[in-house]
Design brief:
By secondary structure, this protein is an alpha/beta fold. It has a single domain, classed as D-Maltodextrin-Binding Protein, domain 2. It is 44% helix and 19% strand. The protein has a six-stranded mixed β-sheet with strand order 6-5-7-4-8-9. A three-stranded parallel β-sheet has the order 2-1-3. α2 links the parallel β1 and β2. The structure holds (2S)-2-hydroxybutanedioic acid. The site of (2S)-2-hydroxybutanedioic acid has 10 residues, from loops.
Length: 338
């Protein structure tokens, strides 16, 4: 009996060791995907689709955890957190990379792209694709672009001509170009996190903000802003990023499966973006909570004339050739020619 006890203990110990190894071998790779918007937005839906596709393609050996609504990190912290290994995928707006690179500021230039088709032509061009590498020196990899859409101006006052914005406080993303854009119409821009915008508007700490129909709808900005000017004056798009360390550490097969899932999720999200720009505008209009102001051609021209000088201001940092190529993508004949 006394000899049996150590024998049993040894057998149990051995079994435990084996089962731990088995569990360890089966432990899935976890990808934390952190973002700041609601789930019923292009980015929210893309992230959820990515999670589904990764599960399917990797047979569960990679698990995606999606954290929407700034639950895990705001965009001001997420890239640092990524470099520390606390999050593996994020998709900040292109306006939020200024600490990492100058060139992505291109996408913030007011009235640069006339619509998402032009944006697609530029992003799919050689120059557009090269810009995904703009952050590689900082240890980050751009996995692809995702659309949200064209931005509109919401405000406590009707904005028909640039003078109407004079003296008003607008929340902006952390971008020098956006700062210059609002200064160009004598407004006061304030860089604030997305998670604070609703409260800032509700408490009237600020007068207005610029965003897409889907963000204005999903975050209820339209409930606290009596006017929205359909200005389509700028673009809100994203770069999906991961860290070189995480990406390089994935076995080749898994990396290929995850990349395939990402490409499919991006195609899906880009279609959601196009649909939501129409649907969410309609829902806002039907709510009766806000007035949507359509600009006449003459009024729109005044906004273009007031804001376009910002291009010159940033020409050195961004590159005159790049600005020119991006602008030429408005021409339907320019298919990925750059
Ligand atoms: C914003 O801060 O307004 C946007 O970048 C939010 C988002 O991710 O669409």
């Amino acid at each position: 009996m006394t000899r049996l006890i150590p024998l049993c203990a040894a057998v149990i110990g051995l079994a435990a060791a084996f089962s731990t190894t088995a569990v360890m071998a089966a432990d899935p790779v976890v990808i934390k995907f952190s973002h700041v918007v609601a789930e019923n937005t292009p980015k929210g839906q893309m992230a959820n689709k990515f999670k589904e596709l990764v599960a399917e393609k990797t047979g569960g050996s990679v698990v995606v955890e999606v954290y929407p609504n700034s639950q895990l990190f705001g965009d001001d912290k997420v890239l640092e957190a990524m470099l520390l290994g606390d999050v593996q995928i994020a998709a900040p707006a292109l306006s939020k990379f200024s600490r990492y690179t100058d060139v992505l500021a291109l996408y913030d230039l007011p009235f640069l792209f006339k619509d998402l088709d032009a944006v697609d032509r530029f992003q799919q061009s050689e120059q557009g694709q090269m810009m995904l590498d703009a952050i590689s020196k900082k240890g980050l990899i751009g996995l692809g672009y995702l659309h949200n859409g064209m931005k509109q101006l919401s405000s406590s006052k009707p904005l028909r001509v640039p003078d109407d914005a004079s003296g008003l406080k607008f929340r902006i993303m952390s971008s020098e170009v956006l700062e210059a854009q609002f200064k160009a119409v004598d407004a006061a821009p304030l860089k604030k996190p997305f998670s604070e915008v609703f409260t800032l508007l509700q408490t009237k700490a600020i007068d207005g903000q610029e965003n897409t129909w889907s963000n204005i709808y999903s975050k209820k900005f339209f409930e606290v802003q009596p006017y929205i000017t359909e200005s389509n004056h700028g673009l809100l798009d994203y770069m999906v990023v991961t860290s070189k360390e995480f990406w390089g550490g994935l076995p080749d097969e898994q990396r290929a499966q995850v990349k395939e899932a990402m490409d499919e999720a991006l195609a899906f999200g880009n279609q959601v973006a196009r649909d939501k720009a129409v649907e969410d505008k309609q829902l806002i209009a039907e709510s009766g909570r806000t007035e949507i102001i359509e600009l006449t051609d003459e009024e729109r021209t005044l906004w273009v004339e007031a804001m376009k000088p910002v291009w010159k201001q940033f020409e050195k940092e961004i590159g005159a050739d790049l600005i020119d190529s991006a602008y030429r993508s408005n021409d339907t004949g320019s298919v990925a020619a750059n």
